[in-house]
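Researcher: I'm comparing several assemblies side by side, and this is the next one on my list. It has 1012 residues spread over two chains. Same procedure as the others: predict the full complex and return the structure.
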Amino acid sequence: MPFNDYDADATELVETYDFLMKYIVIGEAGAGKSCLLHHFTHNSFKDHSQHTIGVEFSSRTVKLGEKRIKLQLWDTAGQERFRSVTRSYYRGAAGAILVYDITNRSSFLNISRWLADARALASPHLVVVLVGNKSDREEDREVEWSEASRWAAENDVHFLEASSLSGENVEAPFLLAARAILLAIESGSLDPEKPGSGVSYGDRALRRVNSSSRLSFGSLSAGRRRGNVKLRSWDPRSKCC
Amino acid sequence: MESATSSTTTKNPISLRLYKVLSTSFDDHGTREALQTLSELYGIAPANGETVGGDGVEGEAYPGEYAAKTRRNLRRDMENKLANGSQLFLTALAEVDEKLNDLQTHVKAMESACADAETQLASTNEASKVVLERAGNLRDERQDVEDKKSIISLFLARFTLSESEAEAITSRDVPVGPRFFEAIDKTERIRQDCRVLMAGEDGPTKAGIDIMASTSTHLEQGFDKILRWISNEFRQVGKDGQLDVMPGMSECILRLKKRPELLTEALTILSSTRQTSLLSSFITALTRGGPSGLPRPIELHAHDPMRYVGDMLAWVHQAIAAEREFLETLFMLKGDGRMVGSARDFESAKGEEEEWIQELMDLAVGKICVPLKNRVLQTVRSQESSIVSYKIANLLQFYLDMMRRTIGPDALLTKTLSEITDTSFTTFQTSIEAHSQGISQVPLDPDDPLLTPPHLILDHAQILREIMNVYQSSVLDDEDGPTTSAASSFDKILDVVIDPVALGCIAQSEEKMRLRPKWDAKVYALNCLTYFQGLLEPYPFTRAKQDQLSKVIEGRVAELIEEHFLDLMKDSGLLEVYIVSKSPPPNEPLSRHPATEPPALLAALHTFSLFLNSPTIVHSPRLANLTHLSLASTIHRAALGRVAKAYGVVCSEVMKEGNRYEAAATLLGSERPFGRVYLVRQIFGMEEGEESESEEESGEESGEEESGEEESGEEEEESEEEDGKSEGDEDDAADDDDDDEEEESEDDGRASDVPVSRPHPVAAGSSKRLV
């Protein structure tokens, strides 16, 4: 199972962290954004979920390689009537988790609009991960993996399918985004020192070290290669959960 | 031989002797040795002649001579030898004796020496005993001292701080860290232990007091150091835009809890730092935005009020979340796993930390309130569109609700938001009220013949529609539907938006009718009212207002039915007859009354017959102007129903004996519908019983029915005459008008059961009460 190695790393909840990243979770109403987030932060499926009112916040610290990353997660309401409220939260987000429902084609058709919104309103280096949620309901599938994957490639976003019911791949999108952001930091295209980037250093000491040398992510590059290989080899049909 | 001789020789002593000698063997060892010794003594004479020859024996003169001589001298030789030997012994012994004497002397000397030594020893022994004793005592003492020493050092180790620990506490060079905290921990443990010790029966000991004093100094210094350090840290917190808890901070806070005054001091510093830095980052976000202008400054969107206000509030919301997380980490509160957006329980008992967190949050965010309030209010006040101001007010309300749930109803921000929200709602209401009032004051165009609501009202309604749309999709609207307070506040809006305009419509229409009497004010007003009702219909939350409007409309409809009924009666020529029949003069039969004299009655019935044939029955041109078609038909049918009933009243009066009509049945039967009410109903296309819904006097009806049935034989013939008699209609109509006036003058004195065609003052009054 690809990404399983994340689980071992990420289950540990830690207090201190090396980076702080702001994410927004967006997508059509009913796509399962809150459930996905709930599973990610509470490790359990949220039953009888209500529509989100406006915006809700939660956070979780994950480990990626040797780095501890605190994720500030802003869960937005998908309903149109909250658009004016939720749009204000895109500001300065480093990552966006764009969720659609694989059993609901209309939730997929609108993702372009969501992506455009996010790109326009959030940080310029916004890392977007497209998540096809409810992958446990294969029999009701309305959006093919290949189609979504193609769209993701065309729009330069990461893509995977997840299930907030079974928990499959629930952590992967968050970690994928975190990894991409760390790579951007490593490559110098993103500077956590600047406010509004959506990322900041956690520990002041670390900050000093990092500002003098950018080589401190050595372990990360290795991780990236590993990750890329997995992403390519990953076939959504080979579900084993 | 022995055996032979034994018997003979046994008793012979000689033989015995002989035997004995003979049998003696000299071969034994002793003998041989003795012989040996002898031979040595003599045998070797030549060699040692002097030994034996000394006796004067010199060389043997014959063999054996020597031996014989020797044998003789043996004894003497032996004795000589013995004597010599003894001599030798004596000499030797004398020597020995001499030596022994020497020895004895020595021994004696030695003995005395020994005695001396012994005495000395004894005395020494005596003397050393004391020393030994002392040594023993000393040894014991030393042991004691050693013990004490180890006890003391243990005591000291336990009850005093080591050099390095003291340094860790007092020195500025040692950073606040694990070492420092360990030292502090130890100090506290010492004090704890010491307190226990001093609580003993003997009361406080000096050492105890000393220890307490010195540790107290150290502890104070330690706390001072903590305070210094954390104050310094707190001054730095968030300076660079990051809000993180330095390692050690939480530990310090935890320790400072024992010194509330110090904690307060430190937290005051933190609070002021946070206030300043939150304020400045808010201002930065507003005016400068992110690095290199991305994300853009919030004020860049000030032209888009919704976005501007929304962005500001969202920024505040996010700042609160970060602040809350920071404080939770600082106070080492475990997150309760709650989403920040979801409700927090404010009623349940909260810890000291929670109280601190809330206070700090409140203070930190409180500073932002001022600029936030200024900007929002400025935006609110500058809005010209009531829809936008309504949207803003709703957005504010949404955030107010959220803050109420997350930071509590008593937080400064919540209060500020509440204030802003109220102001913006008030602003909105004032503006929409002014707008509504303005519209209600605008006089209608007297030359506009149309009876439909004018553009001004349509525009106003459009605004209302949008406001209702905003409300319906409003962020206030939970899954469970709007809260009662919100619903009631919307009722207020509806009151403000609809009532003045509705009243204005009525008033203005009456005004216009005064100028243009032919213009149908009633229909116009009803059109306006039904238009508003239609507008509200899709919105379930306007139920109350709809009901209110329905009541007004019902009243207006009832008026219109009355009017229409009178119009129809006029058209049908039955009006005067009906009025007289309904309240017959007491002392005069109807047949003598000018309006109901048989010829007049006949004429009226003729007109009525013609009326039944006219298109008015199917379609009323006046009511056609009602935009609400089903309402028009309802009014029409209700009026027709009453016409049918009125006909019934007339018939029954005519048939009464007391009214002295000659051939009453023939009179009625002369014209269609021959005095039969059910026929009228049929012509009107009414179902049996439909009428009875609106009628009170069902008793009369049954009587009418009977009378109608009696004359059923004649109806067919006379129905064919209808067309021929149409010429008389005009005269009748003229008569009707005159009679009308008569009736009105009569009515004034009586009960109001006879309707009037003028606009009813009560109706206008009733709609006014609606406000």
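Model: For your comparison table: The interface with chain B takes residues 15-16, 20, 41-42, 50-59, 72, 74-75, 80-82, 84-85, 87-89, 91-92, 121-124, 191, 194-197, 200-204 of chain A (CB under 8 Å).
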